[in-house]
Design brief:
Layout (H helix, E strand, L loop, with lengths): L3 E4 L2 E4 L4 E7 L1 H5 L1 E8 L6 E6 L5 E3 L7 E6 L4 E6 L8 E9 L7 E2 L3 E6 L1
Parallel strand pairs: 2-11
Antiparallel strand pairs: 1-3, 3-8, 4-5, 4-9, 5-6, 7-8, 9-10, 9-11
Length: 118
């Protein structure tokens, strides 16, 4: 069963922009910190950005000033606006819902490929 649905990945030139979207169920979205992770070949999956229910945000150093995470509570959707993309941003990007209820598992999107060419 798919709980998170992603869209917006693709191929762009360096310096270009993409916006990723992730739609969650109302129940999951309402009790979760939402985040975006990415995984490049041969590397560990890393947290790129996260946003709490109160809209506090956090970013990995490599994307600060270029990426913006936001959420729309009315649409149960989290976005990742990616500007000034670099080839090293190339990875599969995954949406994540980290439930605030103790002991409950995370939910993950299926992953969407982002490819940035020089």
């Amino acid at each position: 069963q798919v709980e998170l649905v992603e869209s917006g990945g693709g191929s762009v030139q360096a310096g270009g922009s993409l916006r990723l979207s992730c739609v969650a169920s109302r129940m999951i979205f309402s009790i979760s910190t939402m985040g975006w992770y990415r995984q490049a070949p041969g590397k560990q999956r890393e947290l790129v950005a996260a946003i709490t229910r109160g809209s506090n945000t956090n970013y990995v150093d490599s994307v600060k000033g270029r990426f913006t995470i936001s959420r729309d509570d009315a649409k149960n959707t989290v976005y990742l606006q990616m500007n000034s993309l670099k080839p090293e941003d190339t990875a599969v990007y995954y949406c994540n819902a980290d439930l605030v209820i103790p002991g409950r598992r995370d939910y993950w999107g299926q992953g969407t490929q982002v490819t940035v060419s020089s």
